[in-house]
Amino acid sequence: MTGNEVRVLQHILDGHNNRKIAELLYLAPSTVSTVISHLLKKLDANDRTDAMVKIIRNGWVDALREIFPNRPCEKPQGRFFAAWKI
Predict the structure, then answer these.
(1) What is the pLDDT of residues 27-81, one digit of tens each?
(2) Cα angle for residues 60, 65, 71 (degrees, 5° grid)
(3) DSSP state, 74?
(4) What distance in Å separates the CA atoms of residue 14 and residue 38, rounded to the nearest whole number?
(5) Helix (H) / strand (E) containing 3
(6) pLDDT of residue 85
(7) Residue 9's pLDDT is what?
(8) Which residues partner with 66 through β-bridges?
(9) Which DSSP symbol is given to 4?
(10) pTM (predicted TM-score)
(11) DSSP of 5-70, one letter per residue?
């Protein structure tokens, strides 16, 4: 994977959309879309979610869940995030 691919992938794992990724990496949104298209082909994934699942299942990242304190009578709230193993 190229450097841009790894950086874009990290931002996808962090839950950012293409516009936000472009802002953070100082890239054009079209460049981010192209990088994501290349990543999906390399990973043989149908979409961003499928790519993330494959990355986690291949053991390239650890999937962790951050739990937020819940209010009375509500389900626990949280979000998933991933940390690279390498």
Answers:
(1) 999 999 999 999 999 999 999 989 988 888 888 876 665 545 555 555 544 455 5
(2) 170
(3) S
(4) 19
(5) helix 3-13
(6) 57
(7) 87
(8) 79
(9) H
(10) 0.71
(11) HHHHHHHHHTT--HHHHHHHHT--HHHHHHHHHHHHHHHT-SSHHHHHHHHHHTTSEEEEEEEEPP
